[in-house]
């Protein structure tokens, strides 16, 4: 599960140019007016601090803004902001006055973005959220996200107070999220940390990559079971960068099976990445009560589970036992 993701750009030259002009020149797909509005909302930071449009950029500075925000703002300025979409209440596994927990399926985009207006998770839940003038109009209720083809658990805030508190908890790593991932090859060592900075791939802006000057990123993994050429991992995030798990595992030589962006694409019956957020734990933003949720992987994992067979279990830690139980259930369901 990722926090609300950011575009990150490192200034290499153009010392002294105004921030709004710099962004409009380097990212001309968005108008200068859109950048000015985004800056005025406090959504654009320079070295981690909100900036003003007249800020003179300097080489080495890091400029960041929410992924998709500029495109969404263009749409909003044109009168095409988020609209209530098809009812997605069937995805809700927990709800109270402050939060929703949902089990997101594959193929569902979390928040409105270019090419996705009216068909997103948030728009499908708008009727269950409490409007607030303080809430970000482009992302009501969004605390974090999952990639379109990553499945599993997410928490959505129903009120702005709940959203603010959950976002703060996420920043100080009090929201615990665990994934199961099927990958190519056998990681060595079998468990450990992947630590490498992540930023926009300079050769392909649709991808992220391990890059010098990227944002610190840390991923923990354990190998639970292996087969010839494949391994099932338990993965936990300490940070939450865009595509973090997928980028770190690919950089380590073990791309997620089915990943169309960082791996070989569809494989073993997976139409996209075999990555599922199966566990989510956090304290309730209003009551402080500890909440824990789990969700089994979707049915499109079953063909791979049956094809791979028993394999060799190489970890007996509690998280691996739980991951293996869910994977084994898929095998038995298809027997």
Automatic annotation (TrEMBL):
Which residues does the UniProt record annotate as the domain RNA-binding S4?
Answer: 17-74
Q: Where is the active site?
A: 147
Q: In the UniProt record, does the keyword RNA-binding occur?
A: yes
Any one GO MF annotation of this record: RNA binding
Q: Which domain of life is it from?
A: Bacteria
Query: Recorded E.C. number(s)?
Result: 5.4.99.-
Q: Name one Pfam family in it.
A: S4
Is Isomerase among the key words of this record?
A: yes
Record-linked SMART domains: S4
- Which InterPro entries does the entry mention? PsdUridine_synth_cat_dom_sf (IPR020103), PsdUridine_synth_RluA-like_CS (IPR006224), PsdUridine_synth_RluC/D (IPR006225), PsdUridine_synth_RsuA/RluA (IPR006145), RluA_PseudoU_synthase (IPR050188), S4_RNA-bd (IPR002942), S4_RNA-bd_sf (IPR036986)
Supply the enzyme class, top level. isomerase
Q: Which reaction does it catalyse?
A: a uridine in RNA = a pseudouridine in RNA
Q: Keywords on this record?
A: Isomerase, Lyase, RNA-binding
Instruction: Tell me the Gene Ontology biological-process terms attached to this UniProt entry.
Output: enzyme-directed rRNA pseudouridine synthesis
Tell me the protein family, please. Answer: Belongs to the pseudouridine synthase RluA family.
Stated role: Responsible for synthesis of pseudouridine from uracil.
> Could you identify this protein by its name?
Pseudouridine synthase
Organism in which the protein naturally occurs: Candidatus Hydrogenisulfobacillus filiaventi
Q: Which gene encodes it?
A: rluD
